[in-house]
Specification:
Structural class: alpha+beta
Length: 94
Amino acid sequence: MNSRIAEFQSTYKVNCDMLTAFFQNVMIPRNIKNGQLSCEVYRVSDTTGFVISSFKNKNDATKVMKIMADELNEVKGNTKIKLIEGERVFRIDQ
């Protein structure tokens, strides 16, 4: 399993709200249709948050990133985005 974490920091609350709405209504549903297994979005403050995305493998993660690359670059104009990615070592649930 491959996971990607995207930390985002917008300049203003309204930018962050718009980005979150875009994730929820456009980007993530499309990504799920193209191989992404799951996604969780967290808000840390009015202007910052992070997204945790899970994929079956690195190939699916790369495929989805290619689909959303142009949009991600467009969003970066008003928002700083830092991506980290790797293989999940383990998960513990109750």
